[in-house]
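User: Please predict the structure of the protein below. I'd like the answer in structure-token form so I can feed it into my own downstream comparison script.

Assistant: Understood. Taking the following sequence of 73 residues as input:
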Amino acid sequence: MVDETSIFIGASRKPDDSYQRAEELLLRYGNRHGLVTGATGTGKTVSLQVLAEGFSNAGVPVFCADIKGDLSG
């Protein structure tokens, strides 16, 4: 968690691929709708795991229905 009001969601990069800064999602925007898209193997599940863990660590209840079994064992 970046601080008590936000969760870490990744890092932005400069055009030369050097690290620029941490990106965060303010918890007050956590109740909005979102959409995660991408081709197979691009990190959609991992991105959602990072968000769920961040919300959980901040004390926000999280429910996850793992229909395909991507998160199990």
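That's the full token string. The chain has a mean pLDDT of 86.
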